Amino acid sequence: MYTPISFALLTLSLFSQLVTSQTNESTELRLMHRVVHPDLPVTPWAELGTVSIPSFKFISPTGSHAPLSLAESLQDDLAEFADAVNPNMQGAMYHVAIELPESEGSVSSIKACLLPSSTSANIVIHFSATGEPFAIDYSVSPVPQDGICPVTSTESYPAHNASVVLKSPRMAPLPELRIPPPLTPEGEPVVPVPEKSFVQKYWIYMVVVLGALLISGPGEDSPSSDGKGGK
Predict the structure, then answer these.
(1) What's the confidence (pLDDT) of residue 20?
(2) CA-CA distances (angstroms) from residue 39 to 46, 85, 90, 189?
């Protein structure tokens, strides 16, 4: 039989394990993608993959890496994208979004023409102070410095196993505020008293010294050292 103390310790241990498991539990965040063109019908969203999100306390403001599991239907979806919108068409855009409950979520958009010649992709997911994902940045590389679409004969979208980075909010430094100047009862700034000059500070001592010199008078002449005494 358990004593009251051992039973309390056992209960505390089980509760601690439960809290730890819930705190360290990761969640899955779905990412969606599509291609659009202003002159063509909008293609439906398709699943790009899922990101394993750790506990919010493990996400750093400078960035924490997370694994991405690509969707099984990715290759088929990319083929349908190419049939619907040629990536080399001017004005074609590639969208990547966070799927949030009951909403479309944040969307990142890049030129579709940059995808055929790209070799890698990067995803940055930003989190709010409450631990909710609210923004996403999607980019590919290499990209021409001038941003002009490279000339290529490839008319398909590549399937990149993108690198995913999670970022928590970075707190801005607090502003340095000056101490307000003291005010008079009338509400006007107090005018500082001008600093006195040397004469204004020590004139009394100068008068005392000068008076002492005047009172003492001139000193007596000392007798000549070369004179001879008379007999």
Answers:
(1) 43
(2) 20, 10, 10, 66
d(Cα 117, Cα 172) in Å, to the nearest integer?
Answer: 38
- Determine the Cα–Cα distance for residues 27 and 127; give it in Å rounded to an integer: 14
Predicted confidence at residue 37, as pLDDT, reads 94
What does the alpha-carbon distance between residue 131 and residue 156 come to, in Å, rounded to a whole number?
A: 36
User: What DSSP line would sit under 69-108, residue for residue?
Assistant: EE-TTHHHHHHHHHHHS-TTSTT-EEEEEE-BTTB---EE
How much is the average pLDDT of 71-100? 92
Residues 104-156: pLDDT tens digits? 668 999 999 999 989 999 999 999 888 889 899 999 998 888 878 887 778 88
Peptide linkage before 142 cis (omega within 30 of 0): yes
Gap between the Cα atoms of 182 and 72, Å rounded: 70
Q: Determine the residue type at 175.
A: P
Cα–Cα distance measured from residue 140 to residue 160, given in angstroms and rounded to the nearest whole number: 9
Q: CA-CA distance, 42 to 84, in Å (whole number)?
A: 9
Given a contact cutoff of 8 angstroms between Cβ atoms, the answer to whether 56 and 168 are in contact is: yes
How far apart are alpha carbons 144 and 160 in whole angstroms?
19
Please measure the distance between the N-terminal and C-terminal CA atoms of the chain and give it in whole angstroms. 137
The pTM assigned to this predicted structure is 0.64
**Picking from 22-26, 137-141, 148-152, 163-167, which range would have the lowest pLDDT averaged per residue?**
22-26
> Beta strand pairing status for 68-70 and 64-66?
unpaired
